Amino acid sequence: MQPELALRPILRAEVLSDRTESDSASASQAVWHLVRRLHGRRPDLDAPLDEVVACWQRQTPDGTDVAFQWRPVGQDPLPHYYPPVAWLAFVYSSRVTLAALVESGIWTGVPSVDLGPSHEFGDVVVAIVAVPRPSTSAPAESPWHAAAVWPLLMDTLCRWGRSTEAGYRKRTAFDTIVPRDRFEARYRQLKAAHGHWCQHWPESTDPKKFVFEELGIAAFILELWADDPEMQPGGCGAFVDLGCGNGFLTYVLSREGYRGYGVDIAARRIWSMYVAEGTGVQPDLRVAALDPSTATFPAHTWLLGNHADELVPWIPIMAARSGCRCVVLPCCLHDLGGPYTAYAPGGGRFAAYVAYIRSLATECGFAVEQQHLRIPSNKNIVLVGRSWTPERPPTAADLEARIGELLRRARFTKFEPRTSDRERGHALEDRRRRRQEALAAREPSNQNVKCTDCTGHCCAECEGSTN
Questions:
Q1: Half-sphere exposure of 263 toward its Cβ, with a 13 Å CA cutoff?
Q2: 466 in any annotated domain
Q3: Confidence band (pLDDT; 50, 70, 90) for 243?
Q4: Residue 446 domain-assigned?
Q5: Where does a domain end: 165, 193, 223?
Q6: Neighbours of 441 (CB within 10 A)
Q7: Number of structural domains the chain divides into
Q8: Which residue would you say has higher pLDDT here, 320 or 108?
Q9: pLDDT digits (tens, 9 = 90+) for 66-85
Q10: How far apart are CA 271 and CA 284, in angstroms?
């Protein structure tokens, strides 16, 4: 029951009650009844709306008619995000015609109905039925128009039906670590405070994607830390953002009052803009080439790996050695010894890579939690190690023995830090310059050749008249 998947102006639904009806005396009965609260994507403009959802069922000589009905409760006018209807329903009917179903009285006391689009699946008709609200109750500028909305709903319904018939099962798991309402509330707060960076983003990445993606990751981490006593105000907790890149995540976490620093192999242009903003809280961003095979951070509580490239597989190891907790978002495929090339049957390379990073963290003693984040990225899986398994290595020697076995299997010899983007850019410019110089050296040139008829250099009129 996720209305936001079908109607984009809706942000989420909060279930208030859910029950199954047992009364079977009536010919037309509600067999399931749910009350939920809808939240729009613009909470500053539109108030939440309570909605009753019921599944109606009626036995007929031809089979069973089923209708899922949605009815708004107790608000007039309706919020901007809700269709201007008294109620609407998806109908599954074995009748030859939908009109016969409506006339059969499956809904008693209904003065009139609008028949929306329908679709036939063999002998079954699927359709949308709606009772319009009085025109005076609809919002003045409602985005809902029957000609556009009903086909959209029908297409969504048919797509879900075909997917279910084909045996599709959802494989993503959202909101298993941080509840959705807490995440979205925090995200809205961060967006209001830091969304202005979209207007003056100096990096080459798309600001509308990147800024909001980083704010979503920050919202998850901040709500995760809300359950950690060490990270509360006045606590001793601190973080390290490994491979921080442009440092925006470190900047946001620092602005929200948390201690820590970000480290990357090279500084970025935007770092100076954080300093120049003049807020009084400046992020601690450092340039260093880490050797993760030996690095530890015992004075810190959390290690963060936000798309940290070749550092990703090392973060659980560094965290276990340091006694830290960790958050890892896998991205580019690297293992401990180089590029990662394995595949997962039926899942592809990235699914195999996530399973590999998870196995490394488990080997280091973490009870790994996994969740898909609500961010605009297809690399949206986060792994969290904040507790230990009962099989955690009891001593440092046992942990080192496990890590040694992992390195042996990866054929690790020496960690080679990647070349920074700036160094790659300089190397590319040097290659272009040398290529141009080589081409110029091979081409014949008339430069500095004197003419017989003039004292200046060779010109177009006398080109070729040389001594």
A1: 14
A2: no
A3: very high
A4: no
A5: 165
A6: 8
A7: 2
A8: 320
A9: 878 888 887 777 887 887 78
A10: 10
Q: Do 236 and 147 share a structural domain?
A: no
Q: Check if the beta carbon of residue 240 is closer than 8 Å to that of residue 300.
A: yes
Question: Mean per-residue pLDDT for 448-455?
Answer: 51
Threshold 0.90, pTM exceeds: no
As a whole number of angstroms, the distance between CA 211 and CA 208 comes to 6
Q: 340 with 200, same domain? A: yes
Angle between helices 315-322 and 396-409 (to 10 degrees): 170
Residue 454: phi, psi to the nearest 5? -150, 165
Q: Are residues 103 and 206 in the same domain?
A: no
Q: Identify the band that residue 422 occupies on the pLDDT scale cut at 50, 70 and 90.
A: low
Region 264-291: mean pLDDT is 86
Distance CA 233, CA 257 (A): 8
Q: How many Cα atoms sit within 13 Å of 307 on the Cβ side? A: 14
d(CA 184, CA 174): 12
In a domain, 127, yes or no: yes
Pair 111, 218 in one domain: no
Domain contains 464: no
Angle ∠(19,23,24) on CA atoms, nearest 5: 130
Q: Under a CB-based contact definition with an 8 Å cutoff, are residues 312 and 306 in contact?
A: no
Domain shared by 268 and 343, yes or no? yes
